[in-house]
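Hi all, a correction to my earlier message: I attached the wrong file for YceI family protein. Here's the right sequence:
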Amino acid sequence: MTHDQIQQSPTRTLEGHLLPAPGVWDIDPGHTDLAFVGRHFMVTKVRGRFTDVTGRVVIAPQMSDSTVEVTIGMASVESGSADRDDHIRSADLFDVERYPTATFVSRSVDWGGTSGTVHGDLTIHGVTRRVPLIVSFEGYVPDPWGGHRAIFSARTAVNREEFGITWNMALEAGGLLVSKDVRIEIELETVLAGQ
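and the right structure:
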C-alpha cells in the first residue's frame, strides 16, 4: 500500500473486521488516559494517572507485525492528593529524580479480529520486565481538522516489587499499607502521522 493510499484510506477491512490502515499512528497525549489502580489498607482502591504519555503505534500490513513504543513522564502522576503524589514521586516509590521516565516497547503481537495481546518490555524504576498488554481496537473517527484517529484500549497487571518499588508499611491488624499488585488501564487515542 502506498503513502497516498494510506492517506485516502485510513482504515481497512480484514476478515470482516474494521481496522486501522498500515502506517504510523502517533499517540495524542491530550486524549490518552494511562491509569493505575492499587489498594490502600489492602481494601480501598486508589487510582492514579499519568498526563505525560507519548509514543507511536506502527500498524503493519499484518497486524501481528505491528509495533508499539510508549514513553511515560513519571513526574506527571496525579492521584487526587498532592501529598500522596509527592510521596509517589519520592525516592520511596517512583524516585523520579533518578528514573524520570518509564517505557514500553513491544516485542511480539498476537492478534485476531479486533483484539489481541501485545507482549513487550516495560521499564519502570530502571528495571525491565516482559509484560502482556491485552489490547482491543475500539474504532476509527475522522476528526474535525482533517485528521484520522484510531482508538485502542489496553490493560495489564504488574507486581510493583518486581520493578524494585518495594516501600511499604506493615499494618497492626495484618497485611500491608499499599498493595504489591497494580492494575494498569489505558485508553489510547492515536492520530495518523502526516495528516
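Sorry for the mix-up. Confidence is low (pLDDT under 50) at residues 1-6.
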